[in-house]
Write a structure and sequence with these properties.
Structural class: alpha+beta
Radius of gyration: 27 Å
Strand content: 25-35%
Helix content: 25-40%
Largest sheet: 8 strands, mixed
Number of strands: 26
Bound molecules: fe (ii) ion
Distance between the termini: 103 Å
CATH architecture of the largest domain: 4-Layer Sandwich
CATH superfamily of the largest domain: Metallo-dependent phosphatases
CATH topology of the largest domain: Purple Acid Phosphatase, chain A, domain 2
Length: 497
């Protein structure tokens, strides 16, 4: 009996030790993993769990939005139909999975690639917009620390659910080294150490090509029936699948409070807005409520998270961003839609910001995007109106002149006109090129607008929808205007040596 008791005591002891060791091991593992998590604390953590796909209709309108520096960051927003826990954006190198599978030898380079190919994650923040008696749950995350000129992919998710992967391409770091041009080997004031920079300093033509990009510019899309806008946006993207981003020049919707119109607008720009970043310009129709009175453009200001400006009260109204070596400025021309007591101060703030922004940029090119035009046009409904300059023109054109803006694109009149170069309110080849972009929705005017002495080209299709393709090549900005059916009806270039 004693021998048996001894054996039992040993068995209990050994079992106890196993339990203790297992517990300590588990603790050690937890500690190790805890240290991994701690090391990755902040925005990025490793992703271990298995996920299930987000079901159809559970989220809407996943979108990429432009950030101030498109070479290293991107903002992602989306709208689940109900509030969700643990919302995240995940991203990885586009070819990361392939690299991992084919890396048979764990060389240092392969290990590095494998490490880079891991999925990273950014926690999203939630905001709620209730407008037009509709509540939207808006999730926003900005990815930072991306590598310039690199193709990633991203997906959104929450809890154990994940959406589809979408492409995400970063721009080059062009703005920070914009003084360098192909063949400009003598000018070696490179500020970054990427490969393109090295080759650019040697005048490598390929490096110059890397600064090239195209972007789509859509004029006012406000509509009574958004099917035409839907077809135009989809056709333009299909014809320009390598576009780096797209711009909508304001009056995105006819009524800024009407939730169904925002749904129609977002539906029209899918899948483009999932694939490439959107650049929004606010128009006067974004400020209209359901009674057609002006109001704070609540929906527009909430639906998009654009680059911040120091003037916090003006967030999302005006901003700027760089794409390769082009600096884009988006203006707010809705001063008349603000309460009268605020207008003067609001304009002063924006003018001060604009001067500072244009003075600070090192980008080689400067392009301004503004909804309301700088020129006043006579029209058949107001025969007493004479051609001239608008309040927005008087406010901003002298600043464009002073800071050598290359091109100014506007909208609002629903007509396409090219006005050539203007400086000091007169024809002057040393001033910016002015283009009024046309119409993309179904509010069209066949005979409304008369001519302006500064017009150099008037679209022969005043009642048809159009879009513009902006192509940036080494020493040239090219604006090409197309009808919805792909017919090109204008082309103009700005050259810089
Ligand atoms: Fe407008």
């Amino acid at each position: 009996m004693n021998g048996r008791k001894t054996w039992q005591r040993w068995a209990v002891y050994v079992l106890g030790m196993v339990v203790v060791v297992a517990a300590l091991g588990g603790l050690a593992l937890q500690t190790t993993w805890g240290q991994v998590l701690a090391a990755k604390a902040g925005k990025y953590t490793r992703v271990l769990a298995a996920y299930v796909p987000i079901g159809d209709g559970e989220i809407r309108f996943t979108r990429q939005l432009i950030t101030a520096d498109s070479s290293t960051s991107r903002t992602i927003m989306w709208e689940p139909v109900k509030p969700e826990a643990s919302p995240v954006v995940e991203y990885r190198l586009k070819d990361g999975a392939v690299t991992k599978q084919t890396a048979t030898k764990q060389t240092a380079a392969a290990k590095s690639q494998e490490s880079d190919s891991e999925i990273k994650r950014v926690t999203a923040t939630e905001s709620v917009l209730t407008d037009d008696e509709v509540t939207r749950y808006l999730y926003t995350a900005t990815i930072t620390g991306l590598t310039p000129r690199t193709t990633y992919e991203y997906r959104v998710g929450y809890e154990n659910k994940r959406g589809d992967w979408h492409p995400l391409r970063t721009a080059s770091s062009g703005a920070s080294r914009s003084v360098i041009t192909a063949g400009d080997a003598a000018n070696k004031t490179a500020t970054t150490d990427d490969a393109a920079n090295t080759s650019a300093t040697t005048g490598d033509a390929k490096a110059a090509e890397s600064e090239d990009f195209t972007a789509l510019i859509f004029p006012d899309s406000q509509s009574a029936d958004y099917r035409g806008w839907d077809a135009l946006a989809k056709e333009a993207y299909k014809r320009n699948p390598t576009a780096a981003f797209f711009i909508n020049m304001g009056d995105l919707v006819d009524n800024g409070e009407d939730a169904s119109q925002w749904d129609a607008w977002f539906t029209a720009v899918e899948p483009m807005i999932e694939d490439i970043p959107f650049v929004g310009v606010m128009g006067n129709h974004e400020t209209y409520n359901l009674q057609w009175q002006v109001r704070e453009p609540k929906a527009y200001l909430s639906l998009f998270d654009f680059p911040a400006v120091p003037q916090r009260e003006d967030k999302n109204r005006y901003y700027s961003f760089d794409y390769n070596d082009v600096h884009f400025v988006v203006l707010d021309t809705q001063l008349a839609e603000r309460p009268e007591a605020e207008r003067e101060q609001a304009l002063a703030r924006e003018e001060a910001w604009l001067r500072h922004d244009l003075a600070a940029t090192k980008a080689r090119w400067k392009v301004v995007l503004m909804h309301k035009d700088t020129l006043r046009y006579p029209n058949t409904k107001r025969p007493d109106t004479v051609p001239g300059i608008t309040d927005m023109g008087y406010a901003f054109m002298p600043i464009f002149d002073a800071y050598h803006v290359d091109a100014v694109v506007s909208a609002h009149y629903h007509m396409y006109r090219r006005r050539g170069h203007i400086k000091d309110f007169r024809r002057d080849e040393s001033g910016p090129l002015y283009i009024i972009s046309g119409v993309a929705g179904d509010v069209r005017y066949a005979t409304l607008w008369k001519s302006h002495p500064l017009d150099t080209f008037v679209s022969p299709y005043p009642a048809e929808a159009n879009y513009i393709v902006l192509t940036k090549t080494d020493d040239r900005l090219t604006f090409e205007a197309f009808l919805a059916n792909g017919t090109k009806f204008d082309e103009v270039q700005v050259n810089k040596q």
